[in-house]
Design brief:
It is a single chain. By secondary structure, the chain is of the alpha/beta class. The protein contains 18 helices and 24 strands. The strands form 4 sheets. An 8-stranded parallel sheet has the order 8-15-16-17-18-19-20-21. A 6-stranded mixed sheet has the order 3-2-7-22-23-24, covered by helices on one side. It has a 6-stranded mixed sheet with strand order 9-10-11-12-14-13. β16, α10 and β17 form a beta-alpha-beta unit. The longest helix is centred in the middle third of the chain and has 17 residues. It binds zinc ion (ZN).
Length: 540
Amino acid sequence: MDLIFHNGRIVTMDEEQEAAQAVAIKNDKITSIGSNEQILALKEAGSEIIDLKGRALLPGFNDSHMHLMEYAQNRTKVDLRHCKSVEEIIETTRNFINKRNINKGEWVYGWGWDHGLFQEKRMPNRQDLDRASSDHRIAITRTCCHIMAVNTLTLQKIGIEQKPAAVEGGNVDTDEQGTPTGILEEKAMKLVNDLKPPLDEEALKDLIKQAAGDFLSAGLTSVQTDDLAFLGSDLMPVLTGAYQELESAGGLNLRVNLQCLLPSVEELQAALDRGYRTGQGGPYFKIGPLKLLTDGSLGGRTALLSEPYDDSSPYQGVEVLSVKTLEALVNLASERKMQVATHAIGDLAVERVLNAYEKAARRYPQADPRYRIIHASMATNELLERFKKLDIIADIQPPFIPSDYIIVDWHLDEKRASWTYRWKDFVKQGIKLSGGSDCPVDDYPPLEGVHAAVTRQDKKGNPPGGWHPDQCLSLKEALYIYTMGSAYSSFEENVKGSITAGKFADLVVLSDDITSLEPDEIKNLQVDLTVVGGKIFYSR
Ligand SMILES: [Zn+2]
């Protein structure tokens, strides 16, 4: 044996053998699970023995939907997550520019602001950002990544200072005079993103390694990431090249599954022609599903609803992809046996995606297609039944609950708020779930997600009693979605997701026995050790 863990609370997530005291590892695989006596008897000269002293050992966490590359890039931008007012945005951005001595005329990117938290209860506009600097090109994205605020210089650089042309699948917000306010929604953000210089393979490899280090320290051993949302599909060969090179050089310590955002038939066709298919790759890097986006976010008020947000206007949210294009893409992927995972948040968006999946499944039957809906934030009883009947996976994000509940109650009436984030109803209905963070939309540590799923509260204990507490998951359910649930969603439940002999030795040691804690105490847990393929890549 190479590595033995003993004297622990082994949470296997394997129904055949739910609990154990010790685990043995040889090379990159788990070989045996059992009592201290049984496993310690396997000790050989050179075996590394780790005494867990009663701490929990779990399968490594797997984030079923995030944006690794965007997270890595954000580390180089102004972090606006904690701003409580427009004034604080201005000040934080100004300080960032001064502290880093950024030359006039250069770009200053920021991210993470949430006007739901602001005293002013409004988004920052170009005049606000001009006060941070009128000499730099400022572009700051909202926490949902679906809305961007820019200053006047940026508007000049993208050529939309006055009466901008309509943008398909997006919106340039204007005042009564037709002058842009500085708010760009959905595909209008592309006007800014298109001006960024492209990243080369070396730069990408560097970003991947930095992000992987952070994720490993939080107990993640696998992530499923949509990087093309940030890079654009033209960079797919460069990106996959970067991951593959890292993998073959032994420089990728985190298992990565790429969710491929290819939002037009032409882009999907080009990727298929290049030979990309779901499941291709090695143990550390694999091509995942086709990723699609059908609407925006609840926080940005761009989620597509079946009925208007309120009585004052017919506005129902933003349709990012038309039904026709959505169905054409799902059909083409199904015909060519590419898995599909589609972002849908509003109830109308969810319904449209279910329709598209149902039609494609009839037209191009597959034995095991595993269609997925990422977020699936709003679901009526009828939609829940269709999820079950069509066997659709819901890729959910428990950290959204503490981040979003105030804004959900603000934007939606009581009935529709009760359709939102109803994860226990999904579980009761027998719908397959996988867990993630949508990082950098929310923080990536999976333990924070587990805490949110079981308490439906933020770390300060708000709201008291939890938001819709009837929807709290049990600890076992919450751990399952971040391990086996996520492994199932990427067709990898036979190689990871549980502590089972023969599976990859992807493991995490927590600072305490998670099963003996009160739900509220989960937030105090630390990750002590992260093991991927039998090797320790993080130690606290
Ligand atoms: Zn996302």
